[in-house]
Amino acid sequence: MNIQRKYSLPNCTLLLEGLSDVTRAAHFQEMRPELSILVNAECYLSGYNQPLTGGREFFESLVRAVSGYAQEFLSSVPNPQAHNQESELVEFRKVDGNRHRLIIHSEGAPEGFESHSNNSKRPPIEIDLNTVQLFDLVEAVDQFFADTQTLPELSLELQPVTRRYGGASQALIRQAVPAAVGVSSLAVAAIAFNLIPPPQIRPPQPQPEKQSSSTTNNITPPASAAATPIAVATPTPTSTANTKPTVQDLEALLNTVPEITDPSQLRALNRQVYNQIHPAWTNRSGLKEELIYRLGVAADGAIVGYKAVNKEANLGVSQTPLPNVLYNPASRPPISKEPIAQFRVVFTTRGVLEVSPWRGYARTPEVVGAKITDSNIVKSLNQKLYNTVRQTWSGTHTFTRDLKYRVAVNKDGVIADYEPLNQVAFDYFRETPLPKMFNDVYGSNVAPPNDKEPLAHFQVIFKPNSTLEVTPWQGYQ
Hints:
This protein is of the alpha+beta class. Helices cover 26% and strands 21% of the residues. The chain has helices at 22-25, 56-75, 131-146, 170-180, 185-195, 250-254, 263-280, 311-315, 322-325, 375-392, 423-427, 434-442; strands spanning 2-9, 12-19, 37-45, 52-54, 90-96, 99-104, 125-130, 230-232, 291-298, 303-308, 340-347, 353-357, 403-409, 415-420, 456-462, 468-472. The two termini are 46 Å apart.
């Protein structure tokens, strides 16, 4: 069986094609198949029309050279593993502080790549990368190593740099230690983020010691690629003011952090996920199949990763807002050991967004936060909420089914939160006064609910015959 695996970054994508070893496949019947025999490797780099291609020897050499050069770049100690022209197909050379030359020997140069050799017989391919592209390549390699179902016998072995390559500088030798003892390429990329100056908004001026922004046009692998994309937001070095998150393995992250399973917390996070994706999904036409994704979400509602569940989702991720709603590492601490919740997100062909917990609810969820329970106060607030909504609802509408909401108010009767309870309530919420009431108080229709004080909760139903019902909250059904 032909297997494809894709590891995607904004400026680099690795696409591996191969086969599964039939003698070992029986052990993985309940898992995605293991790619144990590599047939073809392709490396797509932004700004170039054609990928770098080769077999297993090319891919292994690329991995070693990338890891070795990243070690050298961060430690400032020369690493011969990155420049071994005699025994390696791939090597790196530093051009300047923000340019790094990738050289591939004994490979035919595809169209779109420039050769800097006068040797007409199989000249080397030479490609200049900026630092952002380099570390996207580093991150793609790390995604590969985090995937235990792809070439599991291939491991990264970074060798300590010997003293003779470090000269007499003890400071440089001390710098080299962290990069020399078994550190993975992901750790290398994380260190780089701390070494490169943060972006600053200022008029352009010559700054040779700072890195330039990355190339914006991305390379898209062939549409035949059937591997599911896995994306997790991680810091990427960049000098643009609008820092974009990049990706690593979502499955690897979920294997190393606790999972949020509390139904009440999942219910609250479900709303936050919907509120982030729903307004960002602006183009809802043209989907021929449903696009289904698994999302990882932090406890504060930050979307930290997504993975395509079906083939259509793999090919159609650009038709969704998911790459744009990943949390921005520049405005939030990085994800480390935080608990992660999982959600199933479906972009339907009808233009309807569906969000639900990946494993469902273990029991009926409850509203989170302190509650007003005094029956006299609740009765008074019930009438006050009815009067406020009735006065602001004209009754003009197009819906034909009941719109059901949970609405919370504080002790003064001011709206503090509202939540659609059925799909038509999501679809027709603009025909109710609730979003305007909420926006008048908080300045946004998707602002976090007020959970700093006890609240009274009610079920509010807008009926097609213009009838309004407000009753004390009895819990989720």
